[in-house]
Design a protein that fits this description.
Number of strands: 14
Number of helices: 8
Order of helices and strands: EHEHEEEHEHEEHHEEHEHEEE
Largest sheet: 8 strands, mixed
Radius of gyration: 19 Å
Shape: elongated
Structural class: alpha+beta
Helix content: 25-40%
Length: about 260
């Protein structure tokens, strides 16, 4: 698992008070214009620009509407509009903290207004991640930010892991979620709740060996993201054949994991 380092603590992008978003961070001064998005859409043939204000009123407004899998998303922060505040960063995957990243400028994709009541449904989140992976092909992208996990990923890493998932591979647990230590020595997920309504919390005895604990957490994150949350206590087999007990707390906001004695 990549070392966790903070890039920014004050740059918490909270557009419309919504963390359901993905951003692409560009080198300063290199954010694309709407025309570049349209050109990429035409080349990929996997998404389209469904509305570009520039084509209606001949004024570039710094945003376009995208459509993919029949779902619409708003892409904001394009040139020539002023740069947005950088998203918060708590986890890095395939990246090292640098002055270039700290000075980067984001563009952001969010579910459109028509998806207001469905933005956390699995097909919407899956398509949102897919769009982030497709747009990571743009020149000068330095990082892809998955807002629910506060994770910043190398563009090639994010693109490859998400596209493998879309094509039937494993859920990209390190990128669309993250794993962090708890105060008592355990481990917890961050970002899983947007997919399942719950975060995963490993007991300290499962995390004494950080590498083994992370392996257990990642295996469970992948399983839960694909199968949904845990409504009742259950037991599953861990990666080394051990029996793991999964117990949702009273409010069902966390799934606590312990090992059978």
């Amino acid at each position: 698992m990549e070392e966790v380092k903070a890039i920014a603590s004050a740059g918490n992008l909270d557009l419309r008070n919504d963390r359901c978003a993905v951003s692409l961070v560009f080198a300063a001064g290199t954010r694309p214009r709407a025309s570049a998005i349209g050109a990429l859409a035409a080349r990929s043939d996997k998404f389209a620009v469904s509305h570009d204000p520039h084509k209606v009123n001949e004024v570039e407004e710094g945003w376009v509407e995208l459509i993919a899998n029949g779902l619409t998303f708003d892409l904001t922060g394009l040139n020539p509009e002023p740069a947005q505040v950088r998203p918060e960063c708590a986890h890095l995957f395939g990246l090292a903290a640098s002055a270039e990243l700290s000075a980067g400028e984001p563009i952001t994709i969010m579910p459109g207004p028509h998806l207001a009541s469905a933005r956390t449904m699995f097909p919407v989140l899956r398509t949102l991640a897919w769009l982030g992976a497709l747009l990571a092909e743009l020149p000068q992208v330095r990082a892809v930010v998955w807002h629910p996990a506060r994770s910043w990923s190398d563009p090639h890493y994010f693109r490859a892991s998400v596209l493998r998932w879309i094509e039937g591979g494993a859920f990209p647990g390190l990128g669309l979620t993250a794993i962090a230590p708890t105060a008592d020595g355990g481990l917890t997920s961050e970002g899983l709740a947007i997919f399942t309504g719950q975060e995963l919390v490993l007991a300290p005895e499962l995390a004494r060996d950080r590498a083994e604990g992370a392996k257990i957490a990642l295996r469970l994150i992948n399983w839960l993201a694909e199968s949904g949350g845990v409504a009742e206590s259950t037991s599953v087999m861990g990666p080394s054949g051990e029996t793991l007990n999964l117990v949702p707390d009273r409010e069902k906001q966390n799934v606590k994991v312990t090992a059978s004695s």
